[in-house]
Each structure stands twice: as structure tokens, then as C-alpha cells.
Amino acid sequence: VGVRGLSEEVIGMPRLSTLICLTAATTAHGFIAPAPLRAPSGDVSLRKGVLSMSSVPKDEPRQKTQKTWQELGEALANPFTPPQDKPALLSDLIGMREDIAASVTKVLNRESKPEEELLGPIGKRQLKAQETVRRQLRDDILPSARETLEELRERARSSDSRPDPQEQFRRLQGLVTDRLDELTASGKPPTLPEPQKLARDIAQEVRNVFQSTPEGLEQPPYTVSVANPEFEVREYEAFTVARRDMVGVKPGTNRTFAEGSSFNTLAGFLFGDNDQDMAMAMTTPVFVERGGGEEAMSFVIPKEKEGDVPVPRDKTVRIEEVPAARYAVREFAGFVTDAEVEYQRQQLLKDLEEEGYEVEGGGVTVAQYNPPYTLPTSRKNEVLIRVGEKRVGEKE
Hints:
Blueprint: H1 8-11, H2 16-25, E1 26-27, E2 30-31, E3 44-47, E4 50-53, H3 69-77, H4 86-94, H5 97-108, H6 114-118, H7 121-158, H8 165-183, H9 195-208, E5 222-227, E6 232-236, E7 239-245, H10 256-270, E8 286-290, E9 296-300, E10 317-322, E11 325-332, H11 338-355, E12 357-359, E13 364-368, E14 381-390
Antiparallel strand pairs: 1-2, 3-4, 5-6, 6-11, 7-9, 7-10, 8-9, 8-13, 11-14, 12-14, 13-14
Helix pairs in contact: 2-3, 3-4
């Protein structure tokens, strides 16, 4: 971009010009030298808070693009953008020099905030996510960490006997032996994954570390009927879930152990702990129903298995159909703590009251989309509240 006078102190973030220039050229294979591109010539000057670029030809038609320069910059900086697409992105970005100059001028003249004018949708989401995670750490996670440690110590003290390491090793050895017997029962060696498929799966999991919505996972079908910056209203179709009650979870108690137990049990069912020894594909999100009665965790059953769902071996797992319904949904990043869920629930209820929606029931459902290794600022979580129609006379 070539704006050297715009310092980190002014915009409060790393130089956008440095980020774009470095990531535009760097690829997994080295450097790209886009031969068809002509570097802009002429003077780039900064006078009295106005950025001028004399290199822009007056008679040259500007290339039309549907994306903003901020979105193009983010795509260019994205390490997962295919290298062969980056020369075209860089060309489009160079064609939007006037827009870039206008944005920088607004920031220098204090007409706009840097984060509002210079960041694209991904950058703005990350900035909001950082603020959310910072609040969660300060107000909830760190204060409750001591309580969790005390609970773990109490559990250890109340244990009748400590596990014998040799006995634990024998159990593990038995599990491995049983698994090998299962794999070789047919007399044939186990089928190994194809190297190309394995490489694709690994690459996909690496991308999921940074993405808010995991790749390759089925979600329950819905349509968005209302969308605004704070929440959206979704019309969910009916879908099938495997559900397990979370026994012993009460308001104010640590739910880590109950949620972990339910997750492991439901994942075991999905991966083959059923009467057909059928392994099904993982889905997203994981739903946790809070308040309004018993709390429960649910995994979505893949659509192709809805007509032939195997019977769980664990009797605490139930197969149920979730009827079609309308939900108001508010998204947030970071960690799903009790305090954060309550904060997001109150914000959503406030927005629904202002918009005139009828709330149905007193509970809230929490949806978690990501594997545990996804970066906190990239995680996608949601609170869902069932709603009816708008009240008559309320604003549209």
C-alpha cells in the first residue's frame, strides 16, 4: 500500500501495508512474482492529512470488484488462500488505491476509528472476540480457577484408594489387545486410510484451528428469516439428536465433569458404541440445554442416518426428534462459562424485548461448534432462545 507515515501508534495495530506486502508474495512454495502486474509509479505523498497518489492514471478505468479493499486484503493475508489466486487479489487491491487512500485519510483526520475503517469483517470479528475473551478471563475464568482446583483436591481426598499404576497398565494392555483382536477377527489386515485422504484430513484439521466454523461437518438445516448485527432469527427444520441428561448439574455448581462425561458417552455412541457397531460422521454443533428443567447435551444425528439410527448400548443415551421451531440466536467467541452464557442470554433477551418478540419457555440452549484445539478468539458459540411471532404494532 505504501503508506509509510502511518505508524503503529496511530492505527493501534500492525502496519496493514507490511502485512499485505509480505503475505501477498509469500507462499508455501517460496515467492510469487506476478509478471502481468505493473507496479504503480509516481509520487505517493502525505500532505495536511490528505493522502495523494499521483500514480493513478486519470483515463484508466478502475477494475470493478464486489469486495471491499479490506476484504481483499484479508483474503490476500489468509495463509489458506490458494497461491494461484493471490496475483489476481493483489491486482484487484492495487486497482482500489483510491479507496485505500480515502480510508487512510479518514483515519488521519480522525473522521473514523482505525478498527472501523481499516479492518475487514474477519479482523473486526477477531477484535470483538479478543475483547470477549479478555472479559471472560478477567471476570469468570481466573476467579473460578481456584474453586475448580479445590474441588479436584477434595475429590482426590475423598477417593477410597489411589489407583495402582500396574493395574492401570494391565487394563490399558487389555484394551489394546481386545482392539487388535477385533481388527483381525476377519482374518484380513485392517484397511489403512489412503495417503491422499489422510493428508487432506490433516490439512482440514489444521485449518479448523483458525476457523470459526469447522469444515466438513454437517449442521441441522435452517433458514435465516431475520438478521441484524446483534442477533438473527432462524427457522429450524426438524432433526434427530442423541441426547443425554447431565445429572447433578445445578446452578452455581461446576459443570465441567458432567459435561465431559456426557460428551464422551455421546461421542462413543456416534463412533460405534451401538447395537450395529456403526460409526457415524461427527456433526456440529453440540447443543447443551440449560434451565427450564433438566439440563441435557445433544449430538445431531447425520441426515442420512435418521431413518436407521442404531440403538445406543449406553441406556443413558436417548434418540429423540427435535421438532421444527423458530429460535433467536446470538453468537459469541471464546469460552462457554456460566457467567458468559448468562451475559449473552441477558443481552439477547434485551434485544428481543426491544424488537417485540415473544419468548417461549424459560430455558436457553448453548451451541458449541469447534473442536477444543480451535483458538479461543476463533471459536463460534451461540445462545438460542425459542421465540414466537412479533407482537402486533412493534417496529419491523
